[in-house]
Amino acid sequence: MSVIxxxxxxxxxxxxxxxxxxxxxxxxxxxxxxxxxxxxSLLRDRAAAEDVTAQAFERAYRRRGSYRPARGxxxxxxxxxxxxxxxxxxxxxxxxxxLAEDPEDAGLxxxxxxxxxxxxxxxxxxALAVLDPRERDLVALKFAGGLSNVEIARVLGxxxxxxxxxxxxTVTKLRKACDELA
Amino acid sequence: xxxxxxxxxxxxxxxxxxxxxxxxRADHDDEDARELQELSLCLRADAAQPDExxxxxxxxxxxxxxxxxxxSPRGRVxxxxxxxxxxxxxxxxxxPAAGLGATLMLVVAVVVVALPGxxxxxxxxxxxxxxxxxxxxxxxxxxxxAPVVTQSPTSAARESAKSTVxxxxxxxxxxxxxxxxxRFSPGRANRRIERSASLELGAPADEMERLxxxxxxxxxxxxxxxxxxxxxxxxxxxxxxxxxxxxxxxxLRPALxxxxxxxxxxxxxxxxxxxxxxxxxxxxxxxxxxxxxxxxxxRLAAAGTDQEAEAIRVRLDAVDRRIARLHSQxxxxxxxxxxxxxxxxxxxxxxxxxxxxxxxxxxxDAGDLLVGAAGIAVRVLALGVPLGLLxxxxxxxxxxxxxxxxxxALA
Lengths: 182, 411
Prior knowledge:
The structure holds two protein chains of two kinds.
Chain A: H1 3-10, H2 15-43, H3 46-62, H4 74-93, H5 113-128, H6 133-144, H7 149-156, H8 160-181
Helix pairs in contact in A: 2-3, 2-4, 2-6, 3-4, 4-7, 5-8, 6-8, 7-8
Chain B: H1 4-23, H2 31-45, H3 52-63, H4 73-83, H5 91-114, H6 136-141, E1 142-145, H7 153-165, E2 193-203, H8 208-221, E3 225-232, E4 240-248, H9 252-260, E5 264-274, H10 276-301, H11 306-338, E6 339-348, H12 359-407
Helix pairs in contact in B: 1-2, 5-12, 10-11
């Protein structure tokens, strides 16, 4: 359905709905790249990540009235929806596909350090394979999603201290794996 | 369990991670922490970036409010919803409406059950209580008496009617039937019970005619008949009426319920009398008399002299009359158990207020209504609480199962 057709059906938007849409648009602007990065980290498939990201935002948009501030930040709420959508997709496919293509850093300037930087990234990627899926999920929420520990705790349904402990344990394990690979 | 030192170290590392992610550089004094900062920056830099085309498409879709495809069921539902003045309320917003709805349902249930003729849980007594246990008011006036030793005016009238049938004087004295009393016939499956009930209904004086018609109509609907009736109508103090009804005993309960619903129920009584013993006795006597008659006929056929034959004929006549009398008694007993006697008295309500009665009556009515409401509330809770707990448990189990299945994708 085209945008014009949708507008013709909906007609003038009530003030409450317009306010909700503006709020959601703001959330979208803040989180879109991070949600995509998180989902892509989880799925390791660019096309699937796009589908799931779009699906997650659509679901969140439809359910925007169900958000309750008492249950956490809007980011935590949105990442919870995105995580559920990604896990559903993983379960549906029953496999972990490799990334179709590695993400490119088109905006990064080429420098002398670039080769060393790329090498280090390769090591980190290899070290990530040492982690189990739950630990990779945690790393993705923290570094790709950019969530705080409180928000991670909300998404995973655990306490903040537990989320912090898990995160520290995972990062320490990852650093050790990097040291061994380097 | 982590030691305090481990906890402090962990908190330092986590703070260092957040600082690096926030500032975009690794500059912690501690080398270990700095390494973690570098690792975190590397992980963040390695995060996938969305494709520009995808980003553009998403931006357009966001601006359009993520429209659904035209023609799809969800799209049609979305189009319908968009025509509503605002989005549908959330669950939290539904709660007041749900509470109001539940209260209204409770009030309706109380009114329906508390009104005369309303049916409730009831005791399920086989003697046929007309109104259920949910109505405190009707419970208060419904008295079931079975068996009843003393004869009520109703049964007296019935005995009178039977006596006219049995008006022929007996040729030979029969042992009088004992109805009621301490004699009974235990161990019989199909007991013979005489049932009777009386109702006093109130209605405005000018509605007596209509009420009388409705009494006739209800009686006919349940296969009964009006044995006698008298109705006086008009806007005088003497308005009222009496009905002597016969209603099939098997349909007594619904008939009483409908009769009680015709007006304001002032009082209602029921009684039952076990007449199995006299019924069995009369039946046995009848059988014995028939056997005697058969024997006399056999002797008459074999009689040798006219005198002997004449004597047998006289005895035969006497036995025939006895059989006829016993048959009549048996029929009367059968009818009295198959049809219940229902006396309906119509009384004009005085015009003092819509509810009628004094302030004390109003207080009593209010008390009865409250008791009835409490009874209904207990019943609703008895049903609703287990169902609610079951639903809650089911919802929790379903949620936990769904979450576990989702998490299994990471296993």
